[in-house]
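Q: I'm building a small set of examples for a reading group on sequence design. Run inverse folding on the following structure and report the sequence directly after it, with nothing in between.
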């Protein structure tokens, strides 16, 4: 059972997209953002997910860095946000919204060609900078 209606959850996803930096929003093209309750068996298999893994979001398509001359006439990339899985990690609307935003940002980074490792490194670097500023 969903904690929030699809309409409420969709609004959270839209707010996450609206909060992206302007320079990022300007560069987003050829990508559709979709909502599903849970990933399909095929999506889990494609990502190499194992039993017990929880997929919050998924980027499917060709990252922007792989676009080349003559790239066109292809289906848009697809980012899917999985509502039930996100709701498993958060109880309050604020927590759900924070998790939605983190997931949207993560999948948008994949759209731009970043790997999971690169995303994790950027998060760590931002965390270190924030700690240094507060000292």
């Amino acid at each position: 059972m969903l904690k929030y209606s699809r309409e409420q959850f969709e609004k959270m996803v839209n707010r996450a997209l609206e909060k992206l930096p302007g320079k990022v929003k300007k560069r987003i093209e050829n990508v559709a953002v979709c909502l599903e309750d849970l990933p399909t068996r095929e999506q889990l298999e494609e990502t190499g997910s194992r039993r017990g893994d929880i997929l919050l979001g998924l980027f499917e398509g060709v990252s922007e860095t792989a676009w080349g001359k003559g790239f066109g006439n292809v289906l848009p990339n697809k980012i899917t946000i999985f509502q039930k899985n996100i709701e498993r990690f958060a109880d309050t609307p604020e927590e759900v919204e924070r998790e939605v935003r983190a997931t949207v940002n993560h999948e948008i980074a994949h759209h731009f060609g970043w790997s999971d490792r690169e995303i994790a490194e950027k998060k760590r670097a931002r965390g270190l900078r924030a700690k240094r500023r507060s000292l």
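The chain has one domain: 6-134.
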